[in-house]
Amino acid sequence: MSNLFCSSIGKKLLMGLSGLFLMMFLLMHLAINALLLVPDSGETFNAAAHFMATNPMIKIMEPVLAVGFLVHIIWGFMLTIQNRKARGNDRYASGNKTLSVSWASQNMLILGITILAFLVLHMAHFWVKMKITGDDLLSHTTITIGGVATEVENAYALVNYTFSYLWIVVVYVIAGVFLALHLSHGFWSAFQTIGFSNTIWRQRLTAAGNVYAWFVGIGFALIALLQYIFYQG
Q1: Predicted confidence band at 5 (pLDDT cuts at 50, 70, 90)?
Q2: Does residue 135 form part of some domain?
């Protein structure tokens, strides 16, 4: 088994499986973030954030998610270096880039590094403050959950304040576009890696991947932008 995951095929399989896992997480994360747009002063979002912070299953999934990110990042770098070594000087040959190959597929490493840099910034803005350092904006607030008054951290206040800075919103919008480009290639590539692809399904997966990628990428970007435009003050 260890030999499999050390081989080129095994690394690609891990990349594909970890990519599919992370894509499911992104949909869930987007659904929760969309609650930021509910016009109730953050009560619905705070209820969802409280559930995510206290649910035992979520606590179990957090380290699994972290491992998924690490596997995807590390194996992504390893495969890129391995592929570049295998191609050698051929990658510099004239005409190497063709119209049939998308810009995203040619620049997955650049997109990946950009998204990784954004992920570090995103965690510094939210995860670190919510899990480690704390923040005055997270002071407890009382909301109603299932008809019961419940004291929770005011996660909405922290997010809302963070998106009051235009430069942060611009970064999130750019990151959303880069994420969409990354996912547009990664979606069908992940299915192809696990063997679920042929001429017909490649076209279908490419179309489905583009819909998924831009829905997720633009979704995250819009949430940040709308928070800045309509939810301040």
Answers
A1: low
A2: yes
State the pTM of this model.
0.88
Decide if 58 is inside a domain: yes
Query: How far is residue 165's CA from residue 179's CA, in Å, rounded to a whole number?
Result: 21
Residue 100 has a pLDDT of: 55
Mean predicted lDDT score pLDDT of the chain: 86
| Tokens (6 digits) for 125 | 């803005």
Which structural domain range is residue 159 located in? Answer: 2-85+106-230
List the CATH number of the domain containing 203. 1.20.1300.10
The domain tally of the chain equals 1
Task: Count CB-CB contacts under 10 A for residue 140.
Answer: 10
Least confident interval from 69-83, 151-165, 213-227: 69-83
In a domain, 130, yes or no: yes
Angle, CA 51 vertex, CA 47 and CA 138 arms, to 5°: 60
Task: Give the number of other CB atoms < 10 A from CB of residue 228.
Answer: 20
91 part of a folded domain: no
pLDDT in the model for residue 92? 43
Distance of CA 12 to the CA centre of its chain: 19
